[in-house]
Design brief:
The protein has about 500 residues and is mainly α. The chain has helices spanning about 35-55, 125-145, 155-180, 185-195, 220-240, 245-280, 295-310, 320-325, 370-395, 430-440, 445-455; strands at about 20, 65-70, 75, 80-85, 350-355, 360-365, 420, 430, 485. About 45% of the residues lie in helices and about 10% in strands. Strand 5 and strand 6 (about 360-365) form a beta hairpin. The longest helix has about 40 residues, at about 245-280. The structure holds fe (ii) ion (2 copies). InterPro entries: Aromatic_CoA_ox/epox, Benzoyl_CoA_Oase_BoxB, Ferritin-like_SF, PaaA_PaaC, RNR-like.
Length: about 500
């Protein structure tokens, strides 16, 4: 049953038996933390550090409370509960999807063995690395989005931003739980480091490039939640297949939360495009910043940027590490169990593109060596879906222009294209040709400044900034003009405090 629908942002309905979450604990959980005093104490020691981090690097705009969803049970019914809560009192907790006692490793050389409930000694370092890299992205995005509420186009959008923020905070908890529970002292040290690295920090940056880019404005935020959170979905999808069962179950539940983040991106870009299309229709095909909307070519440039940095997150097309993770049973493929092959891939091959003599060519490579590319292909196909929807909005408005996904080699810093300059259409360019056109394809400082000028906060309930259309419905059945966020009394604009 799939109700985690990107398009309507509905609360996901998990399948299988229900496992209630114990909210009487300082750390809400469904992992019987109460029975493991040592672990409980260790996590309770980490909790104040997390809260400090949230205070210093979480959302900057002071708020009284926010209409947020919290997981109440991991199971078929009552997944989520919505209410107004002060953000710093949000009940971040540890929620694992329901376990299956008969689960087996479904791929690689351990295929058919019972899934591991403890970390296999030989894979300890690799598993910890995978968890740390995933964990590092979660607080990074909160840091990147820290100032956005100051320019929220509506209270509705502000609420969605905060929902994403608290859930990324919870995803950090999910990874820290694994580090504390299964990796001893080293795991605890890594958990500390997850709060010490910071997005964009010169000396101590986040691990992956896209998570050190500033999220400068709401268009970038929407592109981020569309493209970069979607990378997260695919990474979690491969970890959900892991032979290490606690990791698989953690990621399965995170995926359910992730659906809302992509809903924010899909519909955010959609509403931006709708407003631009409306003006284009009225003005004989033209829309400029002076019309109070974001011109379509600027939206395309933002798309090009966020897509290309998100593509880099998949790593090199060919990767020995990815192959090893697969054969060891640590990290599977997207929808591994639904694939119709032998799940070891030792004799399989595939095509991949590369650049030689100024041309893009293809060659045949062992499948096991190209699993990053396998995942990236799934991602690319998924990315196309949103673009089709956005183009539908343009078509509906009778506008001829269309948005498009650039060539996979465009503006890449990682993999076979990283030493080449490729146009969005897929031509290999020399440096001079690239430099002459770069500003047509990627946002310039001037473009970003013009977008920033449109980013005026609109805190009046039910009102929206000029550059973005109203959503068709509110959150959790509430009206669009609902008081989703109560700002701090001081300086709170009219209508925004209850
Ligand atoms: Fe996340
Ligand atoms: Fe996310």
């Amino acid at each position: 049953m799939t109700t985690t629908d990107d398009r309507i942002g509905s609360a996901p309905e998990p399948t299988g038996p229900t496992s209630p979450i114990d909210y009487s604990q300082r750390i809400p959980n469904n992992v019987n933390l109460n029975d493991n005093r040592r672990l409980q104490r260790a996590l309770e020691g980490w909790q104040p550090k997390f809260l400090d981090w949230w205070k210093n690097l979480g959302p900057e705009l002071p708020t009284k409370d926010v209409y947020l969803r919290t997981a109440v049970a991991v199971g078929r019914d009552g997944w989520a509960h919505f209410e107004h809560v002060p953000m710093e009192e949000y009940r971040w907790g540890i929620f694992l999807a329901e376990g299956n006692p008969d689960r087996e490793v479904s791929f690689g050389k351990h295929k058919g063995e019972p899934a591991w409930q403890e970390v296999p000694g030989e894979y300890r370092a690799d598993l910890m690395r995978l968890i740390v890299i995933q964990g590092d992205t979660e607080p990074a995005s909160v840091e990147q989005q820290r100032i956005l509420a100051n320019t929220a186009p509506s209270i509705y959008d502000m609420r969605n931003l905060f929902q994403v923020n608290v859930e990324e905070g919870r995803h950090l908890w999910a990874m820290v739980y694994l580090l504390h529970a299964y990796f001893g002292r080293e795991g605890r040290e890594e958990a500390e480091q997850l709060l010490k690295r910071n997005s964009g920090d010169y000396d101590n940056p986040r691990i992956l490039g896209a998570f050190n880019e500033a999220t400068t404005d709401w268009l970038q935020f929407f592109m981020f939640t569309y493209f970069t959170d979607r990378d997260g979905k695919y990474q979690l999808g491969t970890l959900k297949e892991s032979g290490f069962d606690p990791l698989a179950r953690t990621c399965e539940f995170m995926l359910k939360e992730e659906a809302h983040h992509m809903f924010v991106g899909t519909t955010g870009v959609q509403r931006t495009v709708e407003k631009t299309a409306e003006v284009m229709k009225a003005n004989g095909g033209k829309a400029t910043f002076e019309d109070g909307v974001i011109p379509l070519d600027i939206i395309q440039k933002y798309l090009n940027f966020q897509y290309s940095v998100s593509m880099d997150l998949f790593g090199s097309e060919q990767s020995t590490n990815a192959g090893n993770y697969y054969s060891s049973g640590l990290k599977g493929r997207w929808q591994e169990t639904r694939r119709k092959d032998d799940h070891t891939l030792l004799d399989d091959e595939r095509e991949m593109s590369y650049v030689e003599d100024g041309q893009i060519k293809t060659k045949t490579v062992p499948m096991i060596s190209a699993l990053n590319l396998d995942l990236r292909d799934e991602y690319v196909a998924d990315c196309e879906n949103g673009v089709r929807r956005w183009n539908q909005a343009l078509e509906d408005a009778g506008v001829d222009e269309r948005l498009y996904i650039p060539h996979e080699g465009f503006h890449r810093q990682v993999g076979v294209y990283s030493t080449h300059k490729i146009s969005p259409e897929g031509e290999v360019l020399d440096d001079a040709a690239w430099e002459a056109r770069e500003g047509d394809w990627l946002p310039t400082d001037e473009d970003r400044a013009s977008v920033a000028k449109l980013m005026v906060p609109v805190y009046e309930l039910g009102k929206f900034a000029s550059w973005i259309a109203e959503p068709p419905t509110g959150i959790n059945g509430q009206p669009v003009e609902y008081d989703y966020v109560h700002l701090e009394e001081d300086g709170a604009p009219e209508g925004a405090s209850a």
